[in-house]
Amino acid sequence: MGIVHMVLGILLIVLAVIATFLEVTRSSGVPKGLRGAVIGLLDLEVLLGIATWIFVTKPPSILHPVFMVVGVICVHIFTRSNNGKSSRVFGWILADVLLILGAVLFR
User: For 7-22, how does the pLDDT look when each residue is reduced to its tens digit (9 = 90+)?
Assistant: First the structure.
């Protein structure tokens, strides 16, 4: 379970960076389907992380799950299509930073 969580986490960080690039470069922003897929997979990743934490091993730092959950919340709140472009770009960038910091520094 821990390996699935780790591999999906890396894949999701890459997808979030791609979504950020698309949000910045395209006038219409991230395609709705890609945003939905990233958010759905991030939610699944949080559930896998909780299950891994409970059943397999505790993270060495409590900051790992905190950064990750806050990053997912930022994606949910700031990247809605009814928000302005600057808010969506801010949300993707903030989520990227939080996900990368949570994965690299506090793992």
Answer: 999 999 999 999 999 9
Tell me the average pLDDT across 36-47. Answer: 95
What is the pLDDT confidence band of residue 83, given thresholds at 50, 70 and 90?
Answer: very high
Enclosing H/E stretch for 36: helix 32-55
Q: Enumerate residues 6+ apart whose C-beta is below 8 A from 30.
A: 19, 22, 23, 38, 79, 88, 92
Give the Cβ contact number of residue 21 at 10 Å: 13
Q: From CA 46, how far away is CA 50, in angstroms rounded?
A: 6
Residue 34: other Cβ atoms inside 10 A: 15
The token duo for 6 is: 């780790």
How many CB atoms lie under 10 A from the CB of residue 94?
Answer: 18
pLDDT at 2 exceeding the cut of 90: no
Q: How many helices (H) and strands (E) does the chain have?
A: 4, 0
- Collapsing DSSP to helix, strand or coil, 1 comes out as coil
